[in-house]
Amino acid sequence: MNIRKATIDDIDILIKLRIDYLLADNGNLTTDEKNAIRSQLTTYFSKHINHDFIAILAETDNNILSTAFLAISEKPANPAFITGKTGTLLNVLTYPEYRRIGIASRVISKIIDEAKQLGVSSINLSATKEGKPLYEKLGFTESPKYTSMKMQLV
Ligand SMILES: CC(C)(COP(=O)(O)OP(=O)(O)OC[C@H]1O[C@@H](n2cnc3c(N)ncnc32)[C@H](O)[C@@H]1OP(=O)(O)O)[C@@H](O)C(=O)NCCC(=O)NCCS
To answer: Transmembrane stretches, by residue range (predicted)?
Structure first.
């Protein structure tokens, strides 16, 4: 198995991995949703890959086994993100037949190394029930001080 950073040549693979993750997470997408998402992903990956977005792929000669994405944003610094850069970890997926043999742990460790090299101060994520024990094992913690909140606009 090889673990590597995705490049601009991997856009079709990244689109498939995003759709597969969303199907694993939501169970279903309408054709309209799929088309809208595919269209956004093509533009998004072309624009952001290896600038403020990185993806790690675990692969064999024929197959992608696992992946994780990191979207980096820059904002006014504070003591908790002194470089102003934070990463959002998303799309952590290991295909079912390759689970529980440590692949996602290796993929996330690689993305953490890459994030450190890019000066990212901290990484946040929203954990699924399946993902939470994995993240805890790797050292992610729930914030004792802040509750994550959101408002849906569109
Ligand atoms: C969550 C997921 C990415 C884990 O991938 P994986 O390659 O199996 O993870 P690892 O083998 O590296 O797991 C490492 C450790 O995390 C914990 N862990 C992983 N999956 C777990 C599960 N389903 N239940 C409980 N603990 C789990 C265990 O401590 C495990 O170590 P162990 O197998 O020695 O006990 C995979 O189950 C998946 O793709 N799920 C569907 C998508 C998803 O929910 N992604 C997370 C989004 S936040």
So the answer is: none
Residue pair 122/75 in contact by the 8 Å Cβ criterion: no
Index of the ligand 1 atom closest to the CA of residue 91: 47
Q: What share of the chain in percent tops pLDDT 90?
A: 97
104 C-beta closer than 6 A to ligand 1: yes
- 8 A C-beta contact, residue 88 and residue 71: yes
Backbone dihedral angles phi then psi of residue 82, each to the nearest 5 degrees: -65, -30
Walk me through the domains of the chain, giving residue ranges and CATH numbers. Answer: 2-138 (3.40.630.30)
**Ligand 1 centroid from CA 34, angstroms:** 26
**Tens digits of per-residue pLDDT, 33-53?**
999 999 999 999 999 999 999
